Amino acid sequence: GASAARNIKAKFRACLTGTPVENDLSEFYNIMDLSVPGIWGELSFFRTKSSKKSRLLARQTVRPFILRRTKEEVLTELPEKIESHVYLNFKEEEKEHYLSTLANVRKKMTTVQQGRKYSEILKSLLQLRQLCLWQNTNFIQSTKVDFLMENLEQLMEEGHKVLVFSQFTKYLDIIQNKIKERNWVQARIDGTQTLKKRASEVVRFQDGDAQVFLISLKAGGVGLNLTAASYIFLMDPWWNPAVESQAVDRAYRIGQENKLTVYRPIIKDSVEEKVLVLQDAKKE
User: Fold this and answer.
1) 148: buried, middle or exposed (CB in 10 Å: 19+, 13-18, 0-12)?
2) Among 85-89, 118-122, 126-130, where is mean pLDDT lowest?
């Protein structure tokens, strides 16, 4: 796509983006190099680790060629947005299961072959992250789902509309079953649906009687307008904070008239706290 865009003969190019950097500076390099070819010389400099020096140089180099507008400057009529991390403690049996899994993972790491170590680490991280969301030992239990349901009880009674995001469709299934038990009306978007089905679910939430919208983070992170919501629950932290911001921005945009409250439940003393540390590094 980028090389095709470079081959278009034009006297002037402008690039428009809402998220210029998701992971590292080379993404920003590509956008700028497309609009002002050669401005930054070799890409190798920007492939180096993001540092104070490289970020400063990037900023100074592009300043004459960039127009940046933040929501605060442009959408002055947007209502207040409150975002908070809510730290939760595992129940005793959940904690035991998590810690014994962690111990097994550490033991395994000492014996795993060098070539397979990376994939093994990723697999183990995924396993630990999922254990923070739900555990299925003799039955399904989840501190986070309990927290969500407690909050939804009150929010449904007060007539609010709520977005619930997760990366895991199986987790959305568990939450959906709990919601059905309580006879609340819900809509849902995940990667298995056609665009037509997604559009009809959006209408059910925005203009219909659906009170809770369950959304797979990857399927619903961009392109949706969900301003009927006044509460958002991001059930699992994602490595990349830009993806979370895009999810929140489904509701925090032109047309939003409610105060927006965003909750990020985090399990204390778990891998989720490590994810937050990584998010901070990426935000830098």
Assistant:
1) buried
2) 118-122
Q: At what angle do helices 241-248 and 271-283 cross, to 10 degrees?
A: 90
pLDDT tens digits along 71-85? 667 777 788 899 999
Tokens 């060629």 belong to residue: 65
**E strand segments, 64-115:** 81-88
Q: 230 exposed, middle or buried (CB, 10 Å; 0-12, 13-18, 19+)?
A: buried
Element (H, E) at 162: strand 162-166
CB 165, CB 235: distance < 8 Å: yes
| CA distance linking residue 279 with residue 150, whole number of Å | 28
- Does the pTM of the predicted model rise above 0.90? no
Cβ atoms 140, 181 nearer than 8 A? no
Number of neighbouring beta carbons within 10 Å of residue 162 = 25
If you average pLDDT over every residue of the chain, what do you get? 87
Q: Which of 157, 161, 155 is nearest to 251 (CA)?
A: 161
**Whole-number Å distance between alpha carbons of 162 and 164:** 7
Residue-wise burial string across 187-221, b where 16 or more C-beta atoms lie within 10 A, e elsewhere: bbbbeeeeeeebeebbebbbeeebbbbbbbbebbb
What is the per-residue pLDDT across 215-272, written as a single tens digit (0 to 9) for each?
998 776 667 889 999 999 999 998 888 888 888 988 988 888 889 999 999 999 999 9
185 SS3 class: coil
